[in-house]
């Protein structure tokens, strides 16, 4: 007898099982804590491998991980292309491969774009729950792409904001966003207008230079910085990075991949380069209780996304699909 062929779980089916990203919160909190526990936590994942596609201005990322707690083995293949001429093609596209960890058999191929959007927003929500000021009333989203929608959905489900604001470089996309989500959203004509007085700020842009500046940010605000996933890309300026407490998903990834972290430190010399921005804690350390959250301070959560987040999300979807089939 031949081996059973892998199942394909497409975007619509993934969306059905992850209709609310909040369903992932318990598994993601456990995975983040396990990752930050080191070898004892049973999470094995390297920093992602990124292959440039210089002729077309794109990148291919490979993100494998194993979670012992979930006994789940996956790898995600993700492409991201900046400034696409064909705006009908998403800037990020992804596929997740789920393997049987006992023998290496490929069990499932899952659409990874929905998984990426949902798990990224869910991790930002975990950070926000821990780090936002006590009486947060204004949510600001910079960017109007896929991640803006997924963040809006889970943030308005879990938190109560009196006002939601959005800004996007292309105003038409911000207007479209405001018209298509479930609640009222104020479209702002500038990033500064959107940010001023906001308690929670989410940056989900394809910016390569800063679009959020420290002198705009209300003291005690919390920022989820989700874009700028390359070492030479920025969303946040030096002042904001220096005057906030910095939390990350992975120290190793932040010091390898995040331009906001790498380029905002003090330049030591022409030969020695930069001293990176100081990282206070990984999110998993806060969840484990080994580092405090400091919600009274201005905080930044630099989200780069980790392979183990895809692992637990893919296993959640696969288990839900299996139960229904």
Please provide a written account of the structure.
The chain is an alpha/beta fold. It has eleven helices and 17 strands. Strand 8, helix 4 and strand 9 form a beta-alpha-beta unit. Helix 2 runs antiparallel to helix 11 and helix 3 packs across helix 11. It is globular. The mean pLDDT is 91.
Nutshell version of this structure?
The protein is α/β, with parallel strands linked by helices and 325 residues long.
Biggest pleated sheet: 8 strands, parallel
Tell me the number of strands.
17
Q: What fraction, in percent, of the residue positions are helical?
A: 25-40%
Number of helical runs? 11
Give the DSSP E fraction (strand runs of 2 or more residues): 15-25%
Helices and strands, in order, run as EHHEEEEEEHEHEHEHEEHEHHEEEHEH
Q: Span between N and C termini?
A: 22 Å
Rounded mean pLDDT is 91
As a whole number of angstroms, the C-alpha radius of gyration is 19 Å
Low-confidence stretches: none
Which structural category do the helix and sheet elements fall into? alpha/beta
């Amino acid at each position: 007898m031949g081996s059973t062929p892998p199942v394909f779980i497409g975007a619509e089916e993934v969306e059905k099982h992850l209709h609310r990203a909040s369903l992932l919160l318990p598994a993601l909190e456990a995975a983040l804590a396990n990752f930050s526990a080191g070898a004892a936590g049973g999470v094995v994942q390297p920093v992602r491998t990124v292959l440039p596609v210089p002729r077309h201005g794109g990148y291919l990322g490979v993100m494998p991980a194993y979670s012992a707690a979930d006994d789940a083995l996956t790898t995600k293949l993700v492409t991201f292309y900046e400034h696409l001429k064909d705006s009908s093609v998403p800037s990020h596209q992804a596929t997740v491969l789920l393997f049987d960890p006992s023998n290496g058999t490929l069990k499932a191929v899952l659409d990874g774009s929905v998984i990426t959007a949902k798990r990224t927003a869910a991790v930002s929500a975990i950070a926000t729950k821990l780090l936002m000021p006590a009486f947060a009333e204004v949510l600001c989203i910079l960017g109007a792409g896929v991640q803006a929608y997924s963040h809006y959905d889970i943030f308005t489900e879990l938190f109560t904001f009196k006002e939601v604001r959005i800004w996007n470089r292309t105003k038409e996309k911000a207007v479209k966003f405001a018209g298509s989500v479930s609640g009222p959203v104020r479209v702002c004509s500038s990033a500064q207008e959107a940010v001023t007085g906001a308690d929670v700020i989410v940056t989900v842009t394809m910016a390569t230079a800063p679009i959020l500046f420290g002198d705009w940010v209300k003291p005690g605000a919390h920022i989820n910085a989700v874009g700028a996933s390359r070492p030479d890309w920025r969303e946040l300026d030096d002042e904001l990075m220096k005057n906030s407490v910095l939390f990350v998903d992975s120290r190793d990834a932040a010091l390898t991949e995040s331009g906001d972290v790498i380029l905002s430190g003090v330049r030591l010399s022409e030969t020695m380069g930069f001293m990176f921005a100081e990282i206070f804690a990984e999110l998993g350390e806060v969840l484990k209780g080994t580092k405090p959250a400091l919600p009274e301070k201005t905080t930044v959560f630099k989200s780069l996304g980790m392979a183990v987040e895809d692992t637990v999300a893919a296993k959640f979807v696969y288990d839900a699909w299996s139960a229904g089939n």
